[in-house]
Amino acid sequence: MTEPLTPLERRVYHYLIDFLAENTYQPSIREIAKKFRIKSTKTVSDLLGSLSQKGFIERDQSRSRGVRIVGHSGQASTQPVPYYGRVHAGEPALLPDHRMGFITMDRRFLPSDDVFFLRIKGESMIGRGIFPEDYVLVSPSTRAKDGDIVAARLGEDATVKTLTHRGASIVLEPANDADRAIEVGPKDDFAVLGVVCGVFRPFMEQATQPNLPVASDTALN
Questions:
Q1: Which fold, 78-208?
Q2: Catalytic (active site) residue 121
C-alpha cells in the first residue's frame, strides 16, 4: 500500500497539483522553498525524493521542473486515487503491477492520502447500500473497528464485508441473507486492507463503460 505522507509532504504535493493547474508547468525547487519558507534547496529536493519514493510523483533529475504527478489529470484541489484489479498474497497486498489506473477525486472526499478504489461484483453487501459495479473507496490509515465495512484479503482474494470480532476469530458478515458469513482464525492468511469510506456509483449503461477491473464483495478478479 502507498505509504502515508507527512503533513509537510502533503502540503507540497497539493501545492504541486494546484500550481500545475494554474500555470501548466511545475514550480522550481526555489519556488517551492520560497512558498514553504524552507531555507535549504536540499530539503526541498529531499521532500520531492520522498514523494517520488512513496509513488506520488516521478522526477526527471535532468530538468529543473522535472516533476510528473502520477495519475493526475491537471485540475486544482483534486488528487489521483489508484484502483486495483488484483491483490497480492502477503505484504504489501497492493502492488504497482496490479494497479489498473487512477480516478481523479476532489480532495474533500478523501480522508487520507493512501486511499484506493476497488470495484464491486456481487450482491453480498446490498443491505448496506453497496451494489454490483459500485466503486468503493478504501482507507488503509483508518483503524477498523467492529461494525465497520472493510476490504479484506483472504489469500489472493479480496472481500468487502462488515467486520466483527468473536473471541480469537474475526467474522466477515455480509449484508444479504442469501450469503453466509466468513470466519477467519489466527492461522488463516488474512489481512484487513482498510475501511470502506465511500461508495461511488456511475449512472451509465454498462456497454458504454470502459473496460475497468472488477473488484468484488466476495473476490477480486
A1: Umud Fragment, subunit A (2.10.109)
A2: no
Catalytically annotated residue among 161, 169, 187, 216:
161
- pLDDT tens digits for range 57-87: 999 877 768 888 988 766 778 889 998 877 8
Instruction: Look up residue 173 and give its amino acid.
Output: E
| CATH class of the structural domain 7-69 | mainly alpha
pTM above 0.85, yes or no: no
At a CB cut-off of 8 Å and minimum separation 6, what does 52 contact?
58, 59
Cross-strand partners of 165? 170
Residue 212 has pLDDT above 50, yes or no: no
Contacts of 35-38 with CB under 8 Å at 24 or more apart are 36/8, 36/11, 36/12
* Cβ–Cβ < 8 Å for 146, 161: no
* C-alpha span between 209 and 196 (Å, rounded): 23
User: Cis peptide leading into 82, omega within 30 of 0?
Assistant: no
Burial-class residue 142 by CB neighbours within 10 Å (0-12, 13-18, 19+): middle
Domain edges within the chain: 7-69, 78-208
Catalytic residue among 124, 141, 169, 216: 124
